[in-house]
Amino acid sequence: MDYLDNNIAILGAGNLGISIAKGIVHQGIKKAEEVYLTRRTLELVNYLEKDGFQLTKDNSEAVANSGIVLLCVQPKQLAKLMEQINPVLSEQHILVSVITGVPIEEIKSHLQKDIPVVRAMPNTAIAIGESMTCISCNDSPDYAVMIQKIFNSVGRTLIIDDKLMQAATVLGASGIAFFLRFLRAATQGGVQMGFHSDEAQLIAVQAAKGASSLILENKQHPEVEIDKVTTPMGCTISGLNEMEHQGLSSALIRGLMASYEKIANIKK
User: Fold this and answer.
1) Pair 134, 158: CB distance under 8 Å
2) Per-residue pLDDT tens for 53-84?
3) What pairing do the DSSP bridges indicate for beta strands 131-137 and 117-121?
4) Using CA atoms, how far apart are residues 248 and 160, in angstroms rounded to an integer?
5) Distance between CA 261 and CA 169 in Å, rounded?
6) CA separation for the pair 229, 28 (Å, rounded)
7) Are 73 and 81 in contact (CB under 8 A)?
8) pLDDT confidence of residue 2
9) Alpha-carbon torsion 218, 212, 20, 111, what sign?
10) What DSSP character marks residue 42?
11) CB-CB contact of 147 with 135 (8 Å)
């Protein structure tokens, strides 16, 4: 069956769930009225009603009217959520989990029927069609490919082994915050050099976008592109060396690993 012909239910319309919903509609995958959003406090998402989204507090209602069900709740909320929706789940459904730190087999342990489960880890840039989404599935690879079609329309995707999903969460999802922190620091440096903050931010953001685009388009190692910018005794190499003396690369790697280690204990 083609699950993509059915409505989509997003259970847990927080920041990520709302970003996914907006991305799906913005890219024309679904109309807003074909997307159900659930949240315990509807007042926080009532503003989305004017855009046509179906809003409800009732997770079972959303699932009963959909074919693709996205689980966007906190890890500690999973067991209660599955208890609520199990009575209305059927073989006509496919579950897509974006829950941090919860492997596929744990999700399946809550199911009363044999229903395919796919994990997907997008980031908040999905709202503008620029997400990096990693996808895994222990059932048929066809399910992963089908869900990949959804996320391909809102950015880039990569199908990976489920055991790598925690690393993908840190690098791709938390990575948004890490790169934004770099941009904030670059903006502050620009202000110290004499620019107004809006000017410094524009320069830093466009430089970061250009750097990323060079890697994506040329498919080169970052050091190859770095070598094109640096000249003997120049200002660029002086800045790079000072950053390394201050531990830039080490700090970034240590930050990534701290986030990675945190995921293992995220439900404790």
Assistant:
1) yes
2) 999 999 999 999 999 999 999 999 999 999 99
3) antiparallel
4) 29
5) 12
6) 40
7) yes
8) 66
9) positive
10) G
11) yes
Domains and CATH numbers, the chain: 3-160 (3.40.50.720), 169-263 (1.10.3730.10)
Q: Which two tokens stand for residue 108?
A: 């399946």
Is residue 98 within 8 Å of residue 74, measured between CB atoms?
A: no
Single out the residue of 72, 73, 5, 2 nearest to residue 34, CA to CA: 5
Residue count (the chain): 268
pTM recorded for the entire structure: 0.87
Inter-CA distances, 55 with 32, 51, 81, 97, 142, Å: 11, 11, 17, 20, 30
Q: Are 53 and 32 in contact (CB under 8 A)?
A: yes
Strand, coil or helix: 172: helix
Give the tens place of pLDDT for each residue, 195-251. 999 999 999 999 999 999 999 999 999 999 999 999 999 999 999 999 999 999 999
Paired sense of beta strands 117-121 and 68-71, if any: unpaired
Among the listed residues 35, 102, 43, 33, the one whose alpha carbon sits nearest the alpha carbon of residue 70: 35
Closest C-alpha among 18, 29, 87 to residue 53: 18
H/E element holding 199? Answer: helix 197-218
How is residue 211 written in tokens? Answer: 């750097």
Structure token digits, residue 191: 């202000």
